[in-house]
Design a protein that fits this description.
The structure is a single chain. With 92 residues, this protein is mostly helical. The protein has one domain (3-87): Acyl-CoA Binding Protein (Up-down Bundle). It contains 4 helices and no strands. The chain has helices spanning 3-19, 27-40, 56-68, 73-87. It starts with a helix and ends in a 5-residue tail after the last helix.
Length: 92
């Protein structure tokens, strides 16, 4: 798969995910999708100042981001696409 094809598949997967009800997806999978998406768009790091110290949800987000910081953007796109394909089988 070329980078262009990967980008198109990633955009289509994101569009599909955005059109579905997120509350039906398990929270741990939502976090993984969030982290892969942020890494794929080259935004894996979040300033600590944007998080309140007592906000557990944001702590989970930060942890998810840390877990994907060492993978490539392309790998993050592939993982994101794979998860979306399992949740919502093609065609989409």
């Amino acid at each position: 798969m070329t980078e262009k094809e990967l980008d198109i598949d990633f955009k289509n997967a994101f569009a599909k995910a955005s059109s579905e009800e997120q509350s039906l997806v398990a929270p741990d999978l939502q976090l993984h999708l969030y982290a892969c998406y942020k890494r794929a768009i080259d935004e894996p790091y979040v300033s600590n100042s944007s998080f309140e110290s007592n906000d557990l949800r944001n702590a989970f987000k930060m942890n998810a981001l840390i877990q994907v910081q060492s993978i490539t953007k392309s790998e993050a796109k592939r993982k994101y696409i794979s998860i979306i394909e399992k949740l919502y089988p093609r065609p989409w």
